[in-house]
Every structure is written in structure tokens, then in C-alpha cells.
Amino acid sequence: MKVSLPEVNFSDWGDVRYLHLGTEWVQGSMKLDAPFDIELEYVQRMMAWLLFVDPASVAKRHAMQLGLGAASLTKFCRKQLRMRTTAIELNPQVVAACRGWFKLPADDAKLQIVVADAATEIRQPQWLGTVDALQVDLYDHEAAAPVLDSEDFYADCRGLLTEDGCMTVNLFGRSSSYERSLAKIVSVFGEEAVWAFKPTREGNTVVLAQREASQPKRPVLADRAQTIQTRWSLPAPKWLRVFKPVA
After folding, report:
1. Which CATH architecture has domain 40-95+110-245?
2. What value does the mean pLDDT take over residues 180-190?
3. Active-site residue numbers?
4. Ranges of H-type helices in 66-190
5. What's CA 217's distance to the chain center, in Å?
6. pTM to 2 decimals?
7. What is the DSSP string of 36-85?
8. What's the first-to-final CA gap in the chain, in angstroms?
């Protein structure tokens, strides 16, 4: 069955460029004078997995994004963190837009953009158990609810992760949709392995799930947060004030 994909365009407002998929809803953004930084607060929070790993090990890890958006996470992981990075995106127009308008580099030994349906692609054997940081941001052009949001989907996501791997998911708002999504994630990963942020002003709530539950001590998290802020200019110390286990 042929899938109807929305038109892809962009708008500039001041020093920020925004990605749109056929509506005025913002699907991603980029600072024109800092194209490899992460501009949106919720997208920065998708990097919270950094709190759960040794900062010295980051460049040796593999990040995967489900949904390319404006490629903020993909560019940050590849260019700033120097990680092996894979992004899976259904719409080839989004890939072309990111390459033409949002400074997404060409594929190389450490960057691969796969044009595919994420639900199918993540079941491919070559990905299983290889992903240290899985970042899931799959919304339709209306940005109303996650496109993939079943227990089976989250189980497939868990299967991608390495033993100390983490998944971060963007869930929009604390509506009934958020509660249902959180319950599915908890059912798959276990209550002890799931953390959640308070919603941003825009209503995005980022949830983190660990492949294997661990509860780092607060001083360890604080120390890593300071390193993350110093090394990569992400507001990680602020995260710790609005981020906690759901258990």
C-alpha cells in the first residue's frame, strides 16, 4: 500500500530555521549560526541518556534516531559527540530537506541515514543489541500523537539496546495519550528502569527507559551533569531538577 507523505518545507524566524511537514506545526529547528547545536529544550532532553554512561566512553558508542526531524539529534551525535550514528526516516523528502536546508552531512563511515519504516527496520537482525542511545521522536504531520506507540514496538526498541543502553522518547503533553504511552513503556522495560521529565512549556515530556535498571547515586549524576554541560553545552544540571524515576 502506497503511503501518502506530507509536503516538506521550512521557515526562517530571526536566527532560527524551522522544519514543517505540510502544516504550521514545528517538526524541528536549527540555529542558523550554530547548526550543530540543539536549539529546542525538549530535544536537548532527549540527550539525557548521557547521565547514565561514563563521558569518556561516549565516542565509542552507537546512537540511533527513529524519525529524523530537522536532524538536530543526528547532527549532534555525529558531529559533537563523534559517535557512530544511524537515523531511520520514512520520508525521503525529509532527508533531502535536512541535507539541503539543515546542514545534515553526507553519509560516511560513522553516519548512515536509512529511508525505511522504523517499525520494520528495527526488527532487522543487524541492529539488535547494537544501540547504546535510541532516540524516538515519531509524530505525524499534525503532531497529535506518536505514530508508533504499542507494547510490541517498545519491545522491539528494547531489543535494539546494548546492556547499558537507554531509550529516550518524546511524548507530547500529559494528556491521556501520555499516560497510556508511559504505561506501555513501563510494561516493557519495568518500572525501576523508567525515568521521566516534567513537561516543557510547550508540553513535550521526554521519558527515558534503560535496558537494564540502574539507579545511579545522586552525586554521580550531578558530577556527570556538570561534565555534560562543560563539554557539550547541554543544560544537564537543570535536568536533574525536573527528571526523576517513575517508580
Report:
1. 3-Layer(aba) Sandwich (3.40)
2. 95
3. 137
4. 72-75, 92-101, 118-121, 151-160, 176-189
5. 24
6. 0.93
7. TS--SHHHHHTTGGGGGS-GGGGGGSEEEEES-TTSHHHHIIIIIS--EE
8. 42
